[in-house]
Amino acid sequence: MKIQKYISFIGYSGHAYVCIETAQLLGYTVTGYHDFQELEHNPYNLRFLGPEEQFEQHDGLLFVSIGDNYIREKVYNTISAIKKGMFVSLLHPSVILSKTATIDTNVLISAGAIVNALSYIETGVIINTGAIVEHECTIKAFAHIAPRATLAGNVTVGKRSFIGAGAVVKQGITIGNDVVVGAGAVVIKDVPDNLTVVGNPAKRLIK
Ligand SMILES: CC(C)(COP(=O)(O)OP(=O)(O)OC[C@H]1O[C@@H](n2cnc3c(N)ncnc32)[C@H](O)[C@@H]1OP(=O)(O)O)[C@@H](O)C(=O)NCCC(=O)NCCS
Predict the structure, then answer these.
(1) Is 135 a catalytic residue?
(2) Reported confidence tier of residue 57, pLDDT bands at 50, 70, 90
(3) Neighbouring residues of 96: CB distance < 8 A, sequence distance ≥ 6
(4) Which of 15, 109, 145, 198 is the pocket-test mutation for ligand 1 (most atoms within 8 Å of CB)?
(5) 96 and which of 4, 105, 114, 202 could share a cystine (Cβ 3.0–4.6 Å)?
């Protein structure tokens, strides 16, 4: 017997579209979306379920599908303080996931991504399309690994950090919290908290 799984999304823009399609592929029925207001652009014809703070109206599963790392963290923390255990992670069916990897909740792993042996993906992380997370990496809460980025083995990515599209991070590197790594960068040295780095080899972006 097929069990119906109902899920609602919190946040309904570009990143959410990927989350919604992934959920549908996984057999979820999408009941609607929460956002700050009802949105004119509604490509999946979803029902507006009210502003974010009205999530307690329903008992189905939830996923915070907000692309911005800071807002995703804030909204997740607010809701999970009241609704523990309601969140799921969404792994596209094409993902290659090591059986020894650990995935926390409200994680999206998008099409074609690879998460290898003993890696740990914390709450609210986005591993985007075609990204590679090699063995023994730790991706801390609410970080985002953008499409086609590659993390070699034993890399740590700090909280809310963003690794840009196609960037490469050498094995063993530690990237701090709230770091931005530009698209296409090659990171060969540890990056302290709160920095933006770009280029090959990646250097601090000074404006
Ligand atoms: C690094 C980044 C965040 C900087 O953005 P920004 O603060 O708006 O920077 P600007 O576009 O004003 O560029 C500032 C300087 O950095 C350079 N620069 C910006 N991004 C760069 C990159 N990825 N690699 C190399 N140089 C870069 C610009 O050429 C510019 O140099 P200049 O001052 O000599 O002209 C952004 O360019 C970037 O790479 N974002 C990642 C995009 C991405 O991966 N998206 C995926 C979404 S899922």
Answers:
(1) yes
(2) low
(3) 113, 114, 115
(4) 198
(5) 114
Instruction: Tell me the percentage of the chain whose pLDDT exceeds 70.
Output: 94
- Integer angstrom CA distances of residue 85 from 28, 79, 81, 88, 193: 17, 11, 10, 8, 31
The 3-class SS string of the chain reads CCCCEEEEEECCCHHHHHHHHHHHHCCEEEEEEECCCCCCCCCCCCCECCCHHHHHHCCCEEEECCCCHHHHHHHHHHHHCCCCCCECCEECCCCEECCCCEECCCCEECCCCEECCCCEECCCCEECCCCEECCCCEECCCCEECCCCEECCCCEECCCCEECCCCEECCCCEECCCCEECCCCEECCCECCCCEEECCCCEECCC
What pTM was estimated for this model as a whole? 0.96
For a ligand 1 pocket test, name from 18, 194, 205, 207 the mutation site with the most ligand atoms within 8 angstroms of its C-beta: 205
